[in-house]
UniProtKB/TrEMBL annotation:
InterPro entries: H+-coupled_symporters, MFS, MFS_dom, MFS_trans_sf, Sugar_transporter_CS. May be a proton symporter involved in the uptake of osmolytes such as proline and glycine betaine. GO terms for cellular component: plasma membrane. Gene3D superfamilies: MFS general substrate transporter like domains (1.20.1250.20). Residues 17-421 form the Major facilitator superfamily (MFS) profile domain. Belongs to the major facilitator superfamily. Metabolite:H+ Symporter (MHS) family (TC 2.A.1.6) family. The lineage of its organism: Bacteria, Bacillati, Actinomycetota, Actinomycetes, Kitasatosporales. The keyword Transmembrane helix applies. It is a multi-pass membrane protein. GO terms for molecular function: symporter activity. CDD domains: MFS_KgtP. The chain crosses the membrane at residues 55-78, 112-129, 191-210, 241-258, 278-299, 306-324, 330-354, 366-387, 399-417. This is Putative proline/betaine transporter. It comes from Streptomyces luteogriseus.
Amino acid sequence: MTATKTVSPPTKRPVRQLLAASVGNAVEWYDWYAYTFLATYIAAQVFPKSADNSLVPLLSTFAVFAVGFFMRPVGGLLMGAVADRHGRRAALTVTILLMGGSSLLVGLTPTYAAVGVLAPVILVLARLLQGLSVGGEFAASTTFLVESAGPGRRGLFSSFQYVSTTVGQLVASGIATLLVDTLNDGQMNGWGWRVPFVLGAVLSLVGFWIRQGAQETRSAEQQEGPRPGLFEALRRHPRESLLIGGITAGGTIAYYTWTSYLPTYAELNAGIEKSDALLAGTISLAFFALLQPLGGLLSDRFGRRPLLLFFGLGFALLAVPLLHTLSDSFAVLLLVQCAGMVLLTGFTSISAAVNAEIFPPRVRAAGIGFPYSLTVALFGGTAPYVGTLFKELGHAGLFPWYVAVLCLVSSVVYLRLPETAHAPLRR
C-alpha cells in the first residue's frame, strides 16, 4: 500500500494551517527585512566612517547582509533535516525562536564609537543566526504549506509563502517609513533604528504561540520509517537539486532587487529622497501581496510553467528599460516597482509548490532547503552589494543587465521543466 492511499492532507483545518505557517513566516521575514530598510542608519552607527568615501560604511552593511545569506544554506540543510526527521512543526518552532533571539541581538548591538570593532562583530553574529533561521524557515514552511493543501489547491497554498513574506516585509517597511518621518536624524541614529528589532523579538513569541496549534503534515509512514541522512537529498537526488538552483537563480535576483534594494538603488542612482523611496516601496509591496493568491490560482488551473515563463522572459526583456527609466520622480519609481511586481508574481506565487513537487516526501524539506538557500545566497543576498559596488566602480548601468541575464538563464530551465500542477503530490 502506498502512502498516498493511507495518508490524506490535513484539509479539515486549512485556515488554521495557513495561519500557523503564515503568521510565523511573516514575523521571520519582518525581522530579516528590517535590517535592509534601516541599512543606512546601521552603517552610520556600527561601522567606522571613511574620510575618503561615504559609501564605505554602506558597502560594509550590505556585505553583512550578504554574509547572513550564506548561513541560509546551512539553515536549510539542518532545519530541513529536522523537518524530515522530527516533523515540520518541530522545525518551524525552532526557527522562529532562533529568529527572535537574533533580532533582539541586532537591536542591542552597541555602536562602533562605544566598543570599536566589537560592534560589527556582534552584528555579524546576529546576522549569521538570522540566516540560519531564515534558511530553515523556508525549507520547513514551504513543505508544510504545500502538504497542507487539498487537491487542486497547491498553487493557492503555495502563494501564501510570499503573502506572509511580503506582509512581514511590508510591516518592516511601514515601521521604517513611520520612524523616518516621525523622528529627526539624531533620534534615528541614536535609538530609533533599534526599535523595529526589539519589536521583532516580541512578535516572534506571538508566532511561536500560534505555531503550537499547527497539525503535523509528515505522514505516518515517514514518522515510523528510518530517518533520512543529513546529505541524503543531495546524494540521491542531484538532478533535482540542480533543478532547484536553475529555477531560483533568476527569481531571487529579481525578487531582492525589486522588493529590497530598489529604494536604495533609486537613492544612489536617481537622486530620489529617502522617505519617498521607502513610501513607494511600501505601497508596491502591498500591491504585490494582493497579487500572490491570484498567481497561485492561475497556476492551479493553467499550470506552473506558463507563469514561470511570464516571469522569466518578462524580466529578461524589461529589467534594463525599467531600471533605466528611474528618475527623481516618486510616481515613476512607484510605476517601475509595481510593473516589476506583476512580472515577479509569476515566480513568487508558485515557487513553493514547484519546489515541493520536485522532491519525494522523505527528503522534501532538506532537499528544497539547501539548494534553494544556496542559490539565494549566491544571487539574491549579494544583489544590494553588487548593485552598490557597480555604483562605486562607476558602472551602475551594468546592474540591470546582470538581472536580465540571470532571468534569461532561468527561463531556459523553465522551458524544459515538466508540468506538475495537475499530478498528485507524492506522499
